[in-house]
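Its record is quoted verbatim for completeness.
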Amino acid sequence: MKVSEADRAAAWQAQSLLLGYPDEALRAMLPMLRRVADALPEPMGAPLRPVVEYLETGESMTVTTEYVDTFDHRKRFSPYLTWFLYGDTRKRGMALLRFKQVYKTAGLALDDGELSDHLAVVLEFAAAHPAPGRELLEEHRAGIEVMRMDLRENDSPWTGVLDSVSASLSPLRGSDREAVAKLIAAGPPGEDVGLEPFAPPTYLPEIIGGRR
């Protein structure tokens, strides 16, 4: 099924928002996000509907606790894309710089203390800048797939977001499949250099205004 660039951009925007902290601002957007999910092609839209329903019907404290437990406390669900390839190694710093350079070329800037590889940030960027944004996502296709598989294995309410992201990208190639298998078997490299990859992200102010 051919997916238009407009559909892909709308999907990335919705995915980004649904990966955000489940506060009142996000809850206020859920009716709009449901409409977007309903309008998207099924491979991208259908997986988002259960996520929207969970956020709409779940008790606020329960949803918030589940979100923090999922994305802040479990490395296998890390939303920071470079962690999957480089772990807490020195190479990760260069990979983060690559994201910042792409953003800068597009006219956006991050503060020095901000991590540029949070999946929600990359998706938001891709929605506005499809070509460079998709390139970043495709470069980290294996990590996205590992995250998707681990969320599904643990019955996470956010699995559908990663299913939708996966549907918006190219099918896994042979090299990607090998990278996924390697990550599952061994995990990312473990040379610790003091990075704190799981602190709450500071989002791009020009892209994601006011969202946690």
